[in-house]
């Protein structure tokens, strides 16, 4: 980093290592502050200049806020979706602005789309995988390939039948219920971009449900969240999803009813 600065490069204040810096002028215990910062992405030990943020802290905050906004408004790279052979559908939402303003329309498909899925996709699979853009295109771009490969290897090893993988554009979580009902899936697994915070724009969640249904409450879902390289790495998360799928299949329940 210092070599780049000496060569005339401007330091990238959005990089993760910036958060590891202790900016308190005279901490009572420097080692304690360092240990705390390693345990969380919260903004600890940032110091202050009078009653204001230090300049470096403020710039880091603004950079992270910009990343979060970009994550919401950036579409996923659909060339990856095409290469992986996903069946593509779209909710009633027509564009990103409507997606943000009308979450209700992001939970619903048109009658024509539902009929097309019923016609074109595999019925009654053990596992139905759904990928949704959600509130972070960055998250799917960064994590999908690795987690999907691990999941598919695990399901093949356990001899689970896997339905036609489906990508849903402008999707909220509840689309997994509609797809499960249409295709009769035993376990439905949705990979979706999380609402970005100020720690990363690449965090993804996996929602899982046994015989998911729009007639069931939100508590039907089992969730693995914070999936990204500085959280739960996608390879590790994929192994967790395979294990949880086995538990859901055995217990025939999910969400709060499931006692793990």
From TrEMBL:
Adenosylcob(III)alamin binds at residues 173, 194. Its EC number is 4.3.1.7. Keywords: Bacterial microcompartment, Cobalamin, Cobalt, Lyase. Its main location: other. Binds between the large and small subunits. InterPro entries: EutC, EutC_C, EutC_N. Its cofactor is adenosylcob(III)alamin. GO terms for biological process: amino acid metabolic process; ethanolamine catabolic process. The keyword Cell membrane does not apply. Pathway: Amine and polyamine degradation; ethanolamine degradation. One of its GO terms (cellular component) is ethanolamine ammonia-lyase complex. GO terms for molecular function: cobalamin binding; ethanolamine ammonia-lyase activity. Belongs to the EutC family. HAMAP family: EutC (MF_00601). NCBIfam families: PRK05465.1. This is Ethanolamine ammonia-lyase small subunit. The gene is eutC.
């Amino acid at each position: 980093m210092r070599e780049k600065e000496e060569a005339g490069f401007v330091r990238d204040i959005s990089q993760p290592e910036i958060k590891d810096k202790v900016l308190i002028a005279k901490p009572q215990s420097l080692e304690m502050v360092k240990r705390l910062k390693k345990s969380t992405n919260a903004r600890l030990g940032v110091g202050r200049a009078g009653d204001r943020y230090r300049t470096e802290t403020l710039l880091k905050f603004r950079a992270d806020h910009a990343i979060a906004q970009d994550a919401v408004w950036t579409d996923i790279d659909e060339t990856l979706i095409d290469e992986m052979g996903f069946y593509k559908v779209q909710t009633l939402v027509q564009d990103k602005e409507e997606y943000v303003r009308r979450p209700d329309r992001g939970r619903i498909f048109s009658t024509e789309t539902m009929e097309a899925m019923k016609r074109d996709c595999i019925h009654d699979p053990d596992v139905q995988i759904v990928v949704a853009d959600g509130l972070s295109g960055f998250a799917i771009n960064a994590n999908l390939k690795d987690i999907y490969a691990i999941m598919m290897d695990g399901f093949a090893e356990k001899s689970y039948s896997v339905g036609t993988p489906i990508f849903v554009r402008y999707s909220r979580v509840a689309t997994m219920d509609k797809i499960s009902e249409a295709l009769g899936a035993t376990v439905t697994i949705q990979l979706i971009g999380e609402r970005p915070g100020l720690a990363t724009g690449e965090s993804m969640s996996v929602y899982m449900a046994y015989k998911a249904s729009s007639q069931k409450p939100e508590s039907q879902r089992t969730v693995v969240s914070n999936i990204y390289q500085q959280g739960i790495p996608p390879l590790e998360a994929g192994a967790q999803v395979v294990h949880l799928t086995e538990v859901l299949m055995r217990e025939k329940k999910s969400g709060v009813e499931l006692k793990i």
